[in-house]
Amino acid sequence: MYISPPLFIFVNRIASHSLFFFFSFFQTMRRHRNEVTVELRKNKRDEHLLKKRNVPQEESLEDSDVDSDFKGQNVTLDAILQNATSDNAVIQLSAVQAARKLLSSDRNPPIDDLIKSGILPILVKCLERDDNLVCTRLVVSHYAVPLFLRLLQSPHQNVCEQAVWALGNIIGDGPQCRDYVISLGVVKPLLSFINPSIPITFLRNVTWVIVNLCRNKDPPPPMETVQEILPALCVLIYHTDINILVDTVWALSYLTDGGNEQIQMVIDSGVVPFLVPLLSHQEVKVQTAALRAVGNIVTGTDEQTQVVLNCDVLSHFPNLLTHPKEKINKEAVWFLSNITAGNQQQVQAVIEAGLIPMIIHQLAKGDFGTQKEAAWAISNLTISGRKDQVEFLVEQNVIPPFCNLLSVKDSQVVQVVLDGLKNILIMAGDEASTIAEIIEECGGLEKIENLQQHENEDIYKLAFEIIDQYFSGDDIDEDPSLIPETTQGGTFNFDPASNMQTKEFNF
Protein backbone atom coordinates (compact mmCIF):
# COMPACT_ATOMS: atom_id res chain seq x y z
CA MET A 1 0.00 0.00 0.00
CA TYR A 2 1.45 3.37 -0.99
CA ILE A 3 1.51 6.04 1.74
CA SER A 4 1.92 9.62 0.70
CA PRO A 5 5.30 10.78 2.14
CA PRO A 6 4.05 14.28 3.03
CA LEU A 7 1.09 12.79 4.87
CA PHE A 8 3.41 10.38 6.66
CA ILE A 9 5.68 13.26 7.69
CA PHE A 10 2.68 15.25 8.82
CA VAL A 11 1.35 12.54 11.11
CA ASN A 12 4.76 11.82 12.57
CA ARG A 13 5.31 15.54 13.12
CA ILE A 14 2.16 15.41 15.25
CA ALA A 15 3.93 13.10 17.64
CA SER A 16 6.89 15.39 18.10
CA HIS A 17 5.69 18.95 18.56
CA SER A 18 2.77 21.39 18.78
CA LEU A 19 0.68 18.77 20.61
CA PHE A 20 -0.53 20.68 23.64
CA PHE A 21 -3.62 22.14 22.04
CA PHE A 22 -4.35 18.95 20.14
CA PHE A 23 -4.37 16.66 23.14
CA SER A 24 -5.98 19.04 25.62
CA PHE A 25 -8.78 19.34 23.07
CA PHE A 26 -9.30 15.61 22.87
CA GLN A 27 -9.03 14.97 26.58
CA THR A 28 -12.38 16.74 26.87
CA MET A 29 -14.03 14.74 24.14
CA ARG A 30 -16.49 12.06 25.01
CA ARG A 31 -17.21 9.11 22.78
CA HIS A 32 -20.78 8.67 21.63
CA ARG A 33 -22.44 5.37 22.12
CA ASN A 34 -25.96 4.51 20.93
CA GLU A 35 -27.89 1.90 22.89
CA VAL A 36 -27.74 -1.42 21.18
CA THR A 37 -31.21 -2.93 21.06
CA VAL A 38 -31.91 -6.43 20.07
CA GLU A 39 -35.09 -8.37 19.66
CA LEU A 40 -35.15 -10.79 22.59
CA ARG A 41 -36.05 -13.96 20.81
CA LYS A 42 -33.99 -17.10 20.58
CA ASN A 43 -32.14 -17.22 17.26
CA LYS A 44 -34.40 -14.48 15.86
CA ARG A 45 -32.80 -11.30 17.08
CA ASP A 46 -32.24 -8.44 14.63
CA GLU A 47 -28.88 -6.73 14.23
CA HIS A 48 -28.53 -3.16 15.43
CA LEU A 49 -25.10 -1.55 15.25
CA LEU A 50 -23.51 1.02 17.51
CA LYS A 51 -23.09 3.23 14.47
CA LYS A 52 -26.09 2.56 12.29
CA ARG A 53 -24.38 3.11 8.99
CA ASN A 54 -22.22 1.22 6.51
CA VAL A 55 -19.08 2.17 4.69
CA PRO A 56 -19.95 3.03 1.06
CA GLN A 57 -18.73 0.38 -1.35
CA GLU A 58 -18.62 2.13 -4.66
CA GLU A 59 -18.23 5.83 -4.07
CA SER A 60 -14.66 7.09 -4.19
CA LEU A 61 -13.07 10.24 -3.01
CA GLU A 62 -11.51 11.58 -6.15
CA ASP A 63 -10.34 15.13 -6.59
CA SER A 64 -13.46 15.69 -8.67
CA ASP A 65 -15.46 15.42 -5.44
CA VAL A 66 -13.99 18.65 -4.15
CA ASP A 67 -16.44 21.51 -3.95
CA SER A 68 -16.27 23.81 -6.96
CA ASP A 69 -15.30 26.73 -4.72
CA PHE A 70 -11.92 25.08 -4.21
CA LYS A 71 -11.22 23.93 -7.75
CA GLY A 72 -8.51 25.68 -9.66
CA GLN A 73 -7.77 28.05 -6.79
CA ASN A 74 -4.81 28.60 -4.56
CA VAL A 75 -6.66 27.86 -1.35
CA THR A 76 -5.44 29.71 1.73
CA LEU A 77 -5.13 28.09 5.12
CA ASP A 78 -7.67 30.57 6.49
CA ALA A 79 -10.21 29.46 3.89
CA ILE A 80 -9.56 25.80 4.64
CA LEU A 81 -9.90 26.40 8.36
CA GLN A 82 -13.13 28.34 7.93
CA ASN A 83 -14.71 25.67 5.72
CA ALA A 84 -13.47 22.82 7.91
CA THR A 85 -15.65 24.16 10.72
CA SER A 86 -18.74 24.38 8.50
CA ASP A 87 -21.92 22.57 9.51
CA ASN A 88 -22.36 21.63 5.86
CA ALA A 89 -20.82 18.18 5.39
CA VAL A 90 -20.04 18.77 1.70
CA ILE A 91 -18.18 22.03 2.42
CA GLN A 92 -16.33 20.38 5.30
CA LEU A 93 -15.34 17.47 3.08
CA SER A 94 -14.00 19.91 0.49
CA ALA A 95 -11.89 21.64 3.14
CA VAL A 96 -10.46 18.36 4.41
CA GLN A 97 -9.60 17.30 0.88
CA ALA A 98 -8.01 20.67 0.21
CA ALA A 99 -5.85 20.24 3.30
CA ARG A 100 -4.85 16.80 2.11
CA LYS A 101 -3.88 18.22 -1.31
CA LEU A 102 -1.71 20.84 0.36
CA LEU A 103 0.06 18.12 2.32
CA SER A 104 0.61 16.19 -0.90
CA SER A 105 2.54 19.05 -2.49
CA ASP A 106 5.83 17.95 -3.99
CA ARG A 107 7.73 20.90 -2.56
CA ASN A 108 7.64 22.18 0.99
CA PRO A 109 4.22 20.98 2.20
CA PRO A 110 2.98 23.48 4.83
CA ILE A 111 2.97 20.97 7.70
CA ASP A 112 3.95 23.42 10.43
CA ASP A 113 1.53 26.07 9.19
CA LEU A 114 -1.34 23.59 9.24
CA ILE A 115 -0.54 22.50 12.78
CA LYS A 116 -0.30 26.09 13.99
CA SER A 117 -3.58 27.01 12.28
CA GLY A 118 -5.51 24.85 14.72
CA ILE A 119 -7.02 22.64 12.03
CA LEU A 120 -5.63 19.42 13.47
CA PRO A 121 -8.27 18.96 16.21
CA ILE A 122 -10.96 19.79 13.65
CA LEU A 123 -9.66 17.15 11.25
CA VAL A 124 -9.52 14.43 13.87
CA LYS A 125 -12.91 15.46 15.25
CA CYS A 126 -14.33 14.51 11.86
CA LEU A 127 -13.96 10.93 13.06
CA GLU A 128 -16.77 11.57 15.54
CA ARG A 129 -19.30 12.45 12.87
CA ASP A 130 -22.39 10.27 12.61
CA ASP A 131 -22.22 10.25 8.81
CA ASN A 132 -19.59 8.76 6.54
CA LEU A 133 -19.17 11.67 4.16
CA VAL A 134 -16.22 13.23 5.95
CA CYS A 135 -15.40 10.63 8.51
CA THR A 136 -14.25 7.13 7.79
CA ARG A 137 -14.23 7.20 3.98
CA LEU A 138 -11.66 9.96 3.93
CA VAL A 139 -9.47 8.53 6.68
CA VAL A 140 -9.43 4.99 5.31
CA SER A 141 -9.17 5.91 1.64
CA HIS A 142 -6.12 8.08 2.25
CA TYR A 143 -4.17 5.44 4.15
CA ALA A 144 -4.35 7.02 7.59
CA VAL A 145 -4.97 3.71 9.39
CA PRO A 146 -1.37 2.44 9.00
CA LEU A 147 -0.16 5.77 10.33
CA PHE A 148 -2.44 5.56 13.37
CA LEU A 149 -1.11 2.05 13.96
CA ARG A 150 2.44 3.37 13.78
CA LEU A 151 1.59 5.98 16.39
CA LEU A 152 0.63 3.17 18.79
CA GLN A 153 4.38 2.59 19.08
CA SER A 154 5.08 6.18 20.11
CA PRO A 155 7.06 6.68 23.34
CA HIS A 156 4.57 9.42 24.23
CA GLN A 157 1.58 7.90 26.01
CA ASN A 158 -0.75 10.74 25.08
CA VAL A 159 0.04 10.16 21.40
CA CYS A 160 -0.77 6.46 21.82
CA GLU A 161 -4.04 7.30 23.52
CA GLN A 162 -5.20 9.58 20.73
CA ALA A 163 -4.24 6.97 18.13
CA VAL A 164 -6.29 4.40 20.06
CA TRP A 165 -9.24 6.79 20.13
CA ALA A 166 -9.03 7.43 16.38
CA LEU A 167 -8.77 3.72 15.56
CA GLY A 168 -11.73 2.99 17.82
CA ASN A 169 -13.91 5.35 15.81
CA ILE A 170 -12.83 3.75 12.55
CA ILE A 171 -13.40 0.22 13.88
CA GLY A 172 -16.80 1.23 15.21
CA ASP A 173 -17.94 2.30 11.76
CA GLY A 174 -18.88 -1.25 10.79
CA PRO A 175 -17.59 -4.76 10.13
CA GLN A 176 -15.70 -3.83 6.96
CA CYS A 177 -13.65 -1.13 8.64
CA ARG A 178 -13.26 -3.36 11.69
CA ASP A 179 -11.85 -6.24 9.66
CA TYR A 180 -9.63 -3.89 7.65
CA VAL A 181 -8.03 -2.49 10.79
CA ILE A 182 -7.71 -6.01 12.23
CA SER A 183 -5.96 -7.15 9.05
CA LEU A 184 -3.34 -4.45 9.56
CA GLY A 185 -2.49 -5.82 13.01
CA VAL A 186 -4.28 -3.62 15.54
CA VAL A 187 -5.08 -6.27 18.16
CA LYS A 188 -1.65 -7.09 19.57
CA PRO A 189 -0.43 -3.49 20.14
CA LEU A 190 -3.86 -2.54 21.48
CA LEU A 191 -3.87 -5.31 24.08
CA SER A 192 -0.32 -4.42 25.12
CA PHE A 193 -1.74 -1.29 26.77
CA ILE A 194 -3.61 -3.41 29.34
CA ASN A 195 -1.16 -3.18 32.20
CA PRO A 196 -1.12 -1.74 35.73
CA SER A 197 0.80 1.38 34.71
CA ILE A 198 -1.75 2.65 32.22
CA PRO A 199 -3.89 5.64 33.35
CA ILE A 200 -7.53 4.82 33.93
CA THR A 201 -8.73 7.16 31.18
CA PHE A 202 -6.45 5.46 28.68
CA LEU A 203 -7.60 1.99 29.76
CA ARG A 204 -11.22 3.06 29.32
CA ASN A 205 -10.44 3.99 25.72
CA VAL A 206 -8.66 0.69 25.13
CA THR A 207 -11.63 -1.25 26.54
CA TRP A 208 -14.03 0.75 24.37
CA VAL A 209 -12.02 -0.18 21.26
CA ILE A 210 -12.13 -3.84 22.32
CA VAL A 211 -15.92 -3.55 22.50
CA ASN A 212 -15.96 -2.23 18.93
CA LEU A 213 -13.76 -5.12 17.82
CA CYS A 214 -16.28 -7.59 19.28
CA ARG A 215 -19.36 -5.86 17.91
CA ASN A 216 -21.19 -6.81 14.70
CA LYS A 217 -22.04 -10.35 13.67
CA ASP A 218 -22.62 -9.94 9.95
CA PRO A 219 -19.92 -11.04 9.62
CA PRO A 220 -18.59 -11.65 13.14
CA PRO A 221 -14.98 -10.80 13.93
CA PRO A 222 -12.41 -13.39 12.83
CA MET A 223 -12.10 -16.36 15.18
CA GLU A 224 -8.39 -15.66 15.59
CA THR A 225 -9.24 -12.17 16.83
CA VAL A 226 -11.78 -13.53 19.31
CA GLN A 227 -9.13 -15.93 20.62
CA GLU A 228 -6.72 -13.03 21.09
CA ILE A 229 -9.24 -10.81 22.84
CA LEU A 230 -10.81 -13.28 25.29
CA PRO A 231 -7.81 -13.52 27.67
CA ALA A 232 -7.82 -9.73 27.94
CA LEU A 233 -11.53 -9.72 28.78
CA CYS A 234 -10.89 -12.36 31.45
CA VAL A 235 -8.48 -9.88 33.05
CA LEU A 236 -10.64 -6.79 32.64
CA ILE A 237 -13.70 -8.44 34.21
CA TYR A 238 -11.96 -8.08 37.58
CA HIS A 239 -11.52 -4.33 37.18
CA THR A 240 -13.10 -2.09 39.80
CA ASP A 241 -13.79 0.80 37.41
CA ILE A 242 -17.47 0.63 36.48
CA ASN A 243 -16.99 1.97 32.94
CA ILE A 244 -14.32 -0.61 32.18
CA LEU A 245 -16.37 -3.41 33.75
CA VAL A 246 -19.52 -2.47 31.83
CA ASP A 247 -17.65 -2.32 28.51
CA THR A 248 -15.95 -5.65 29.25
CA VAL A 249 -19.25 -7.39 29.90
CA TRP A 250 -20.84 -5.84 26.81
CA ALA A 251 -17.90 -7.13 24.77
CA LEU A 252 -18.65 -10.63 26.10
CA SER A 253 -22.32 -10.17 25.25
CA TYR A 254 -21.46 -9.30 21.65
CA LEU A 255 -19.20 -12.33 21.34
CA THR A 256 -21.90 -14.65 22.72
CA ASP A 257 -24.32 -13.21 20.18
CA GLY A 258 -22.24 -14.58 17.32
CA GLY A 259 -23.43 -18.20 17.23
CA ASN A 260 -22.67 -21.42 19.08
CA GLU A 261 -19.02 -21.54 18.07
CA GLN A 262 -18.29 -18.16 19.62
CA ILE A 263 -20.41 -19.08 22.65
CA GLN A 264 -18.21 -22.12 23.15
CA MET A 265 -15.06 -20.02 22.86
CA VAL A 266 -16.35 -17.75 25.63
CA ILE A 267 -17.21 -20.77 27.78
CA ASP A 268 -13.78 -22.31 27.17
CA SER A 269 -12.11 -19.08 28.30
CA GLY A 270 -13.37 -19.81 31.82
CA VAL A 271 -15.09 -16.45 32.23
CA VAL A 272 -18.66 -17.70 32.86
CA PRO A 273 -18.24 -18.35 36.64
CA PHE A 274 -17.07 -14.73 37.01
CA LEU A 275 -19.80 -13.39 34.74
CA VAL A 276 -22.80 -14.92 36.52
CA PRO A 277 -22.30 -13.17 39.91
CA LEU A 278 -22.49 -9.82 38.13
CA LEU A 279 -26.24 -10.43 37.77
CA SER A 280 -26.50 -9.19 41.36
CA HIS A 281 -24.10 -6.26 40.97
CA GLN A 282 -25.22 -3.04 42.64
CA GLU A 283 -24.88 -1.10 39.37
CA VAL A 284 -27.82 -1.58 37.02
CA LYS A 285 -25.53 -1.00 34.02
CA VAL A 286 -23.46 -4.02 35.01
CA GLN A 287 -26.54 -6.15 35.69
CA THR A 288 -28.01 -5.28 32.30
CA ALA A 289 -24.85 -6.20 30.41
CA ALA A 290 -24.35 -9.41 32.41
CA LEU A 291 -27.96 -10.47 31.86
CA ARG A 292 -27.57 -9.99 28.12
CA ALA A 293 -24.32 -11.97 28.09
CA VAL A 294 -25.60 -15.00 30.01
CA GLY A 295 -28.88 -14.74 28.10
CA ASN A 296 -27.01 -15.07 24.83
CA ILE A 297 -25.15 -18.13 26.13
CA VAL A 298 -28.38 -19.99 26.90
CA THR A 299 -29.55 -19.48 23.31
CA GLY A 300 -26.94 -22.11 22.50
CA THR A 301 -27.05 -25.86 22.94
CA ASP A 302 -28.42 -27.62 26.03
CA GLU A 303 -24.83 -28.38 27.04
CA GLN A 304 -23.84 -24.72 26.79
CA THR A 305 -26.97 -23.74 28.73
CA GLN A 306 -26.06 -26.22 31.45
CA VAL A 307 -22.68 -24.51 31.97
CA VAL A 308 -24.54 -21.37 33.04
CA LEU A 309 -27.01 -23.31 35.20
CA ASN A 310 -24.11 -25.04 36.96
CA CYS A 311 -22.96 -21.60 38.17
CA ASP A 312 -26.12 -21.27 40.32
CA VAL A 313 -27.47 -18.66 37.94
CA LEU A 314 -31.13 -19.23 38.86
CA SER A 315 -30.55 -18.02 42.42
CA HIS A 316 -30.18 -14.49 41.04
CA PHE A 317 -33.56 -14.47 39.30
CA PRO A 318 -36.02 -13.81 42.14
CA ASN A 319 -34.44 -10.37 42.46
CA LEU A 320 -34.21 -9.85 38.70
CA LEU A 321 -37.88 -10.74 38.21
CA THR A 322 -38.90 -8.21 40.87
CA HIS A 323 -36.41 -5.54 39.81
CA PRO A 324 -37.86 -1.99 39.67
CA LYS A 325 -36.63 -1.60 36.08
CA GLU A 326 -39.00 -3.21 33.61
CA LYS A 327 -36.19 -3.80 31.13
CA ILE A 328 -34.48 -6.07 33.64
CA ASN A 329 -37.75 -7.97 34.19
CA LYS A 330 -38.15 -8.45 30.46
CA GLU A 331 -34.66 -9.77 29.86
CA ALA A 332 -34.89 -12.01 32.93
CA VAL A 333 -38.04 -13.64 31.55
CA TRP A 334 -36.39 -13.89 28.13
CA PHE A 335 -33.49 -15.74 29.76
CA LEU A 336 -35.89 -18.16 31.46
CA SER A 337 -37.81 -18.73 28.22
CA ASN A 338 -34.63 -20.22 26.80
CA ILE A 339 -34.19 -22.44 29.85
CA THR A 340 -37.76 -23.77 29.53
CA ALA A 341 -36.91 -24.48 25.89
CA GLY A 342 -34.17 -26.82 27.08
CA ASN A 343 -34.32 -30.38 28.33
CA GLN A 344 -36.60 -31.67 31.08
CA GLN A 345 -33.89 -31.47 33.74
CA GLN A 346 -33.43 -27.79 32.94
CA VAL A 347 -37.19 -27.21 33.06
CA GLN A 348 -37.21 -28.90 36.47
CA ALA A 349 -34.44 -26.57 37.66
CA VAL A 350 -36.69 -23.57 36.92
CA ILE A 351 -39.56 -25.22 38.81
CA GLU A 352 -37.42 -26.10 41.83
CA ALA A 353 -36.03 -22.56 41.94
CA GLY A 354 -39.58 -21.35 42.55
CA LEU A 355 -39.61 -19.20 39.42
CA ILE A 356 -42.77 -20.47 37.69
CA PRO A 357 -45.17 -18.39 39.87
CA MET A 358 -42.98 -15.34 39.20
CA ILE A 359 -43.09 -15.93 35.45
CA ILE A 360 -46.88 -16.26 35.64
CA HIS A 361 -47.03 -13.00 37.62
CA GLN A 362 -45.13 -11.27 34.80
CA LEU A 363 -47.48 -12.95 32.32
CA ALA A 364 -50.41 -11.33 34.11
CA LYS A 365 -49.01 -8.01 35.35
CA GLY A 366 -45.88 -7.13 33.35
CA ASP A 367 -45.80 -4.65 30.51
CA PHE A 368 -46.54 -6.09 27.09
CA GLY A 369 -42.92 -6.78 26.15
CA THR A 370 -42.43 -8.76 29.35
CA GLN A 371 -45.77 -10.54 28.91
CA LYS A 372 -44.65 -11.59 25.44
CA GLU A 373 -41.48 -13.16 26.84
CA ALA A 374 -43.50 -14.86 29.58
CA ALA A 375 -45.82 -16.32 26.93
CA TRP A 376 -42.79 -17.83 25.21
CA ALA A 377 -41.51 -19.21 28.52
CA ILE A 378 -44.84 -20.91 29.24
CA SER A 379 -45.34 -22.21 25.71
CA ASN A 380 -41.78 -23.56 25.59
CA LEU A 381 -42.39 -25.45 28.84
CA THR A 382 -45.50 -27.09 27.37
CA ILE A 383 -43.32 -28.41 24.56
CA SER A 384 -40.21 -29.40 26.52
CA GLY A 385 -41.74 -30.43 29.83
CA ARG A 386 -42.97 -33.76 31.13
CA LYS A 387 -46.62 -34.35 31.98
CA ASP A 388 -46.05 -33.66 35.67
CA GLN A 389 -44.22 -30.42 34.83
CA VAL A 390 -47.07 -29.20 32.64
CA GLU A 391 -49.51 -30.28 35.35
CA PHE A 392 -47.60 -28.13 37.84
CA LEU A 393 -47.92 -25.22 35.42
CA VAL A 394 -51.70 -25.61 35.31
CA GLU A 395 -51.90 -25.91 39.10
CA GLN A 396 -50.20 -22.50 39.32
CA ASN A 397 -53.26 -21.05 37.55
CA VAL A 398 -51.44 -20.19 34.34
CA ILE A 399 -54.43 -20.59 32.01
CA PRO A 400 -56.40 -17.36 32.79
CA PRO A 401 -53.51 -14.90 32.22
CA PHE A 402 -52.38 -17.03 29.28
CA CYS A 403 -55.83 -16.75 27.67
CA ASN A 404 -55.92 -12.98 28.27
CA LEU A 405 -53.21 -12.57 25.63
CA LEU A 406 -55.44 -14.10 22.96
CA SER A 407 -57.01 -10.69 22.39
CA VAL A 408 -53.79 -8.76 21.69
CA LYS A 409 -52.98 -7.48 18.21
CA ASP A 410 -49.57 -9.17 18.02
CA SER A 411 -50.17 -12.23 15.84
CA GLN A 412 -47.00 -13.93 17.01
CA VAL A 413 -48.07 -13.74 20.65
CA VAL A 414 -51.54 -15.06 19.81
CA GLN A 415 -50.06 -18.03 17.97
CA VAL A 416 -47.62 -18.76 20.80
CA VAL A 417 -50.52 -18.83 23.29
CA LEU A 418 -52.69 -21.02 21.06
CA ASP A 419 -49.80 -23.45 20.63
CA GLY A 420 -49.31 -23.55 24.38
CA LEU A 421 -52.99 -24.13 25.11
CA LYS A 422 -53.19 -26.92 22.54
CA ASN A 423 -50.09 -28.56 24.03
CA ILE A 424 -51.66 -28.43 27.51
CA LEU A 425 -54.89 -29.97 26.22
CA ILE A 426 -52.99 -32.73 24.43
CA MET A 427 -50.86 -33.42 27.50
CA ALA A 428 -53.95 -33.55 29.72
CA GLY A 429 -55.29 -36.60 27.92
CA ASP A 430 -58.35 -37.81 29.80
CA GLU A 431 -58.35 -34.58 31.83
CA ALA A 432 -58.70 -32.41 28.71
CA SER A 433 -62.33 -31.66 29.55
CA THR A 434 -61.24 -30.17 32.88
CA ILE A 435 -58.72 -27.94 31.10
CA ALA A 436 -61.38 -26.97 28.55
CA GLU A 437 -63.67 -25.98 31.41
CA ILE A 438 -61.02 -23.69 32.88
CA ILE A 439 -60.44 -22.11 29.47
CA GLU A 440 -64.16 -21.51 29.06
CA GLU A 441 -64.67 -20.11 32.57
CA CYS A 442 -61.91 -17.50 32.16
CA GLY A 443 -63.29 -16.27 28.82
CA GLY A 444 -60.70 -18.04 26.72
CA LEU A 445 -63.22 -20.02 24.70
CA GLU A 446 -64.91 -16.87 23.42
CA LYS A 447 -61.53 -15.46 22.38
CA ILE A 448 -60.61 -18.67 20.58
CA GLU A 449 -63.95 -18.66 18.78
CA ASN A 450 -63.32 -15.10 17.61
CA LEU A 451 -59.89 -16.11 16.34
CA GLN A 452 -61.55 -18.40 13.80
CA GLN A 453 -62.11 -15.18 11.84
CA HIS A 454 -58.48 -14.03 12.17
CA GLU A 455 -56.71 -12.79 9.04
CA ASN A 456 -53.69 -14.97 9.83
CA GLU A 457 -54.28 -18.39 8.30
CA ASP A 458 -52.20 -20.27 10.86
CA ILE A 459 -54.09 -18.64 13.72
CA TYR A 460 -57.60 -19.32 12.46
CA LYS A 461 -56.71 -22.91 11.57
CA LEU A 462 -55.25 -23.50 15.02
CA ALA A 463 -58.27 -21.89 16.68
CA PHE A 464 -60.60 -24.07 14.61
CA GLU A 465 -58.68 -27.23 15.54
CA ILE A 466 -58.90 -26.44 19.26
CA ILE A 467 -62.64 -25.72 19.06
CA ASP A 468 -63.28 -28.79 16.93
CA GLN A 469 -61.30 -31.20 19.10
CA TYR A 470 -62.05 -29.95 22.60
CA PHE A 471 -65.16 -27.74 22.56
CA SER A 472 -67.45 -29.36 19.98
CA GLY A 473 -70.45 -30.85 21.81
CA ASP A 474 -70.83 -33.75 19.39
CA ASP A 475 -67.24 -34.80 19.84
CA ILE A 476 -67.02 -34.69 23.62
CA ASP A 477 -66.23 -38.21 24.77
CA GLU A 478 -68.28 -39.64 27.55
CA ASP A 479 -66.38 -39.90 30.81
CA PRO A 480 -65.27 -43.57 31.01
CA SER A 481 -65.74 -43.51 34.79
CA LEU A 482 -69.48 -42.96 34.27
CA ILE A 483 -69.96 -46.04 32.09
CA PRO A 484 -71.14 -48.97 34.27
CA GLU A 485 -69.01 -52.08 34.23
CA THR A 486 -70.50 -55.33 32.91
CA THR A 487 -70.40 -58.27 35.30
CA GLN A 488 -69.82 -61.88 34.30
CA GLY A 489 -73.56 -62.43 34.49
CA GLY A 490 -74.17 -59.71 31.92
CA THR A 491 -75.57 -57.19 34.37
CA PHE A 492 -74.25 -53.68 35.03
CA ASN A 493 -72.27 -52.91 38.14
CA PHE A 494 -72.64 -49.25 39.21
CA ASP A 495 -70.05 -47.76 41.56
CA PRO A 496 -71.52 -44.63 43.20
CA ALA A 497 -68.08 -43.42 44.20
CA SER A 498 -67.08 -43.24 40.57
CA ASN A 499 -69.59 -40.45 39.99
CA MET A 500 -67.70 -38.06 42.27
CA GLN A 501 -65.88 -35.43 40.27
CA THR A 502 -62.61 -33.84 41.38
CA LYS A 503 -60.87 -30.63 40.45
CA GLU A 504 -57.44 -32.16 40.99
CA PHE A 505 -55.30 -32.63 37.90
CA ASN A 506 -53.83 -36.00 37.15
CA PHE A 507 -52.60 -35.92 33.58
UniProtKB/TrEMBL annotation:
GO cellular component: cytoplasm; nucleus
Entries under Pfam families matching the protein: Arm, Arm_3, IBB
Keyword Protein transport: yes
One record GO biological process: protein import into nucleus
ARM repeats: 270-308
An example molecular function term from Gene Ontology annotations: nuclear import signal receptor activity
Family: Belongs to the importin alpha family.
Protein name: Importin subunit alpha
